[in-house]
Amino acid sequence: MVGISVAAYLQEQGKKVAVFEAKSIGQGVTGHSTAKLSSLHKDSYTDVVKNFGDDGAKTYAEVNEAGIDTVERYVQKYKINCEFKRISNFTFTTRDDYVDKLTKEFESTQKAGMKTTFYNTGDVSSQIGLPFPVKAAIGIENQAQFNSYAYISELAKAFVNNGGVIYEDTRISNVHESFDSNSQHTLDVDHYNANANNKTNPLQVTAKHVVLATHLPIADRSGHFTFTKPMMSYVMAFSVHDQSKLPPHMYLNQEENPSLSIRYANKSLDDPNSEKLLVISSGGHLTGAPPKGGNQSGYQETFDNTVQHFGENFIKGVEYKWSAMDYIPADGVPYIGYINRVSNIFTATGFNKWGLSWSAATGKILHDLMSNKEGTEWTKLVDARRWDLKGSIAELTKIVGTVQNI
Ligand SMILES: Cc1cc2nc3c(=O)[nH]c(=O)nc-3n(C[C@H](O)[C@H](O)[C@H](O)COP(=O)(O)OP(=O)(O)OC[C@H]3O[C@@H](n4cnc5c(N)ncnc54)[C@H](O)[C@@H]3O)c2cc1C
C-alpha cells in the first residue's frame, strides 16, 4: 500500500518514479488485511494525546481522514472496482471493566476534534448493530471499507498506464547511500527469474530519492527495529446462515484478550449482489511467540471467539482464512519520513495495524519532504527520526521477556 500509494501520488506531482517489488504487488500485508479505512483506531488517541498533546491528536485524525479521501479520489479517478463503501466504524467493549478506558478514549477523540459519538445507555448492541451484548461504544460516521488487494492492483495498473514503471520479482538487496543531497543513491537490484529458478546478476539503479516501503526499512541504519514490534493477526471469512443479520458497519473491540475485528465483505468482487461474508480478525500475538491460547492455533482462537460472540448457529462455514503481521510503534504514531539525519532516504512503518489510511496519506507527507517543506504539522507528527528511548526500552524489555518464555 505504501509503495504504490506513494508512487501514484509522486507521479501526479510530476516525478519520474520506478517501483521495485520483491514478490508481486499487493501480496504483502496489504492484500492480507481486513481492509478498513478509518481515523478511529481502537484506543490510539489516549496514547497520542498523552505523547503528542491535543494538537498531535488533531493532526493524527486529519492525516487519516485525508488518507480515506485519497483512496476515494483514486477510486473515482481510475474507476477502481474494489468495493469501496462509506460506512461507520465503532470501537466497542463487552466488559464493564473496560468502560472507563473507552470513556477516556472517547474524550481523547473529542480532543482530536473528531465527530465521534459515545454510546453507553440503553441497548448499545442494537444501536450499533451487533448481535451480542455490548457495554459501550465509540462511533464515527463516513469511514470506509474496501478490498485492499483489488484497490492496490488497479492503482498499480493506472500508475503504469500513466508512464510509471514497476519491476516485480525484483528485490533491492542493498542501498549505497549518498550523503550529498544533490547526488544519487545507488541500489543493488536482484531480479528473480522464476523460469530459470535463479537470480540474474545484480544490477544497479540510481535515484535521487529512495522510499524504502518494506515495513522496517531494509538497510535499517536508523534502528527502527528497536522501537517497533511485529504483531501477528489471523483473519477468517465465514459464510452465514442469515445474511440479513450481518453487522452493517465496521467494529473493533477495546479489549486485547480476545481482540475482535468485525466487518462484512462480498464474496465476489464482480457481483455486488453476491453472498456477503462475515470477516473476523482475532487471535493476535507477538510474531514468533505462540498464540495466546497456548498451543491452540491463531485460527482456532479466531474461530472460537467468533462462535463465542455470534453463537454456533450464526456461522455456516469457513470460506477463507489468512494471517499477516504489522509493526507496532512505541509511542502510538507511525514513523514516516527520513530514515536518518544525513540522507534523503525515506521510510513509512509502525502502522499499528492501521496502515491503509496512513499509507494513502504518505505520498503527500513524503512529497512535502522531497520538496523541502519540512516542518508541516503532518511531517512533524510522524517524523521517522524521533527517538523514544523510554518507549523503546519498555517495548524491547516486553519482547525479550516474551521471547524468553517461548
Ligand atoms: C491481519 C491484519 C489486518 C489489518 N487490517 C487493517 C485494516 O483493516 N485497516 C488498516 O488501515 N490497516 C490494517 N492492517 C495494517 C495494514 O495492512 C498495513 O499497515 C499496511 O498494509 C502496510 O503496508 P505496506 O506497504 O507497508 O506493507 P506491504 O503491503 O507488506 O508491502 C511491503 C512490500 O515490500 C516488499 N518488499 C519487502 N522487502 C523488499 C525488498 N528488499 N525489495 C523489494 N521489495 C521488498 C514486500 O514484498 C511487500 O510487497 C492490518 C494488518 C494485519 C496484519
Label this structure with key terms:
18 strands; 32% helix; alpha+beta; globular; 9 helices; 406 residues
How would you explain this protein's 3D organization?
By secondary structure, this protein is α+β, with helices and mostly antiparallel strands. It has helices at residues 2-12, 44-77, 99-111, 124-128, 148-161, 298-310, 355-370, 377-382, 389-404; strands at 18-20, 36-37, 85-93, 116-119, 136-145, 165-167, 170-176, 185-193, 198-199, 203-207, 210-212, 228-240, 250-253, 261-266, 276-286, 315-329, 335-338, 345-349. Strands 2, 3, 4, 5, 12, 13, 14, 15 and 16 form a nine-stranded mixed beta sheet that branches. Strands 7, 8, 9 and 10 form a four-stranded antiparallel beta sheet that branches. β8 (185-193) and β9 form a beta hairpin. The longest helix has 34 residues, at 44-77. The two termini are 32 Å apart. Residues 1-3, 20-23, 27-30, 33-36, 171-172, 213-215, 218, 233, 235, 281, 324-326, 351, 353-357, 359 line the site of flavin-adenine dinucleotide.
